[in-house]
TrEMBL record:
GO terms for biological process: protein deubiquitination; proteolysis. Its main location: nucleus. It is found in: Nucleus. PROSITE patterns: JOSEPHIN. This is ubiquitinyl hydrolase 1.
Length: 152
């Protein structure tokens, strides 16, 4: 049928490394708070740990989104966020850093399930032949990171 449960996706991601899918009920989607320590303390924690402590979703790896047997990803490429929904007519759409939380909140309000993707070992971004030949080039549409960042 092409529909995969969240458990199947968890197993598939586990083959790449220590990657977990965290449901939206277990993390805050709302805008980053101002809680936490001073700048020096945040720098010492590292970007991702500080982001986690402050609720800054823009520093995360990505999100998997599901509704009615359709999955899609929101993924950070460099410093930009992209909606990689295959139903978008014009291809990937950029999601502004300041809009990310509001976009995720709107998806949850519309009945989508949102999962935070966290961990180490995600496959490299890019064409299969550029990352060791893994994957099939003839399946789907592939975008180069430089094309996304340039808006191409």
């Amino acid at each position: 049928s092409g529909f995969f449960s969240v458990d199947v996706l968890r197993l598939a991601l586990a083959r790449f490394g220590a990657i977990e899918l965290i449901p939206s009920q277990k993390f805050s989607i709302s805008q980053p708070s101002s809680r936490g320590g001073g700048e020096g303390e945040r720098e010492a924690l590292g970007a991702r740990k500080a982001a986690e402590a402050a609720g800054d979703l823009t520093q995360e790896l990505g999100f998997l989104v599901n509704r009615a047997e359709h999955w899609f990803a929101l993924r950070r490429v460099g410093r930009r966020w992209w909606n990689l929904n295959s139903t978008l007519e014009r291809g990937p759409e950029e999601v502004g850093r300041f809009y990310l939380s509001a976009f995720l909140e709107a998806l949850v309000a519309e009945g989508y399930s949102v999962f935070l993707v966290r961990g180490e070992g995600l496959p490299e971004r890019g064409y299969p032949e550029e990352v060791g030949g893994h994957g099939r080039r003839d399946i789907g549409t592939w975008y180069r990171v430089s094309d996304l960042v340039a808006g191409g």
